[in-house]
Amino acid sequence: MEQLALIIDLNVCVGCHACVTSCKEWNTSGWAGPMSDVNPYDANPTGTFFNRVQTFEVGTFPNTETVHFPKSCLHCEEPPCVPVCPTGASYKREADGIVLVDYDKCIGCKYCSWACPYGAREYDQRQKVMKKCTLCVDRIYDQTLPESERKPACVMACPTSARLFGDVHDPDSEVSKLIRENSGYQLMPEWGTNPSNHYLPRRKIHFKIHEDELQRVDNPLKKEGLLPEPPKDQQTLDDIYSSW
Amino acid sequence: MHPAFSVIFLTTLIGVGQGLFLALYTGQIYSIMKLLPAQNSQSFYAMGSLVALGLLVVGLFASFFHLGRPMRAWRSSSKWRTSWLSREVIILPTTMLLIALYGAIHHFGWTQPIFTLAKTQQIDLSLIIGAIATLSTLALFICTSMIYASVRFLQEWNNPLTVINYILLGAASGFTLAVVFSVIVEADVVGFYVLWAIILTIAAFITRATTLLRNRRLTPKSNLQTAIGMRHTIIAQKSQGAMGGSFNTREFFHHKSLAKLKFIKNTFLMLVFPIPILLLFIAVFGFYPLCLATAAFVIQYFGLIAERWYFFTEGRHPQNIYYQSVA
Ligand code: SF4
Ligand code: SF4
Questions:
Q1: What is the fold of B5-218?
Q2: Are B57 and B9 in contact (CB under 8 A)?
């Protein structure tokens, strides 16, 4: 069975919040109604979001690293939030493993939010129902969109490709390979929720530059700047080099 | 966790109602065994059931304030196979119905013996319905408390003690109310109820105090390292993605000072346990019984509100790890 999920590469996330705004924009404009805000242009603005980016500082100055950490529903394979729902509004889809809330059935008892250790569910103060990431279920199957755009809005927006989308049950998918090859991990594994979303850890990239690489040895004039224009009837420099 | 008054009133009020019903039925069993004088069907059992029913109704009413969409509440009975909340939603009206039936049987005097057990014990309809209602009442205690005890992420609640506390605290307050009630209707069972109210209150004190001690020694299962997957001992949050608060900061934090928590804890430890016991003890010797018993009940009930309030603030949710610093 398919299990769609997001892979978040903490090594490249720059904390720009593009995924947050893109998610909010897409999901507040959809058929399910707005993700309402309270005091949006006032003191203490607050509102409903499916996705938030948090920032952590690891280590002590000066040896610190800044980690930007996007957090949304992890679409757990054993979602503890689903069985506690008294109405059946919260459910996990058999076919693709997406955990969803049926806003027409939800009574807003907030019990499911207690049963999510990640704080991934947010109660909409205006619509009075529980909301959470839908993995853009209304985008990814939309036949009217070009194939390349059938991805969650956050994935489309990420300028650094820190967010990837795919089937983590298919061992040959791009996301499965990334998890395997970069020691992708799950959050709070101690609860046995088996989240589908994985995070790729910070990785040290060693890039060795040799002294001679600092100078362009392939510059025949040994100096930067405008090259003399070759006569029209002769080979250009490019032709010479590519024939080497 | 944030203490919501709708749920505080729901759990304490239905607790008293259930306890009162248990007290009435226990009284009836004792009087059938000839251990207590028989009571008037109408003024005692029917009236008592009405009071118990009233408390359950008010509790149910309070619970609607907890829902975002109360008009859809009927939907919540559908997932009883997996959800304790759904089970409570079914068993609460069932219990109300059974207690109403029990009261009606007494009120209309449908208490002719139906059959005789072991040649001497006459069994009537009120005994049978009462027994079923007792089971339903206990089931309701279990469902209500399991809503909290079954959430494994809240380690402070995820323990059988939560269930025991709900049962004992509900029963204790119900028996205390039964004392007041029997003083008012001048039933000669005051001593019996005082005895059991005191026993149950002491038992509740033992289990609630054990819970407080247990929760003090609890180590959280999750920490910042597992929460974000960074294997480093020094991690500081610099932002949580919002500065004006979010559902996560409203629902899962109590935002109360340690001093206030301590004050509420000490308050409920005084109001629920020693003061009512003392008042009941004096009342049973015929010293202003109505005033003292009423005071005992009211004080204990206020104490229970504080107890439930504290119960919610005790719960430390692992999601709070992600919300330690605003900016
Ligand atoms: S992250 Fe939370 S809301 Fe999402 S499936 Fe897991 S437990 Fe449920
Ligand atoms: S808030 Fe809605 S989705 Fe969550 S448990 Fe209650 S009814 Fe189910």
A1: Formate dehydrogenase/DMSO reductase fold (1.20.1630)
A2: no
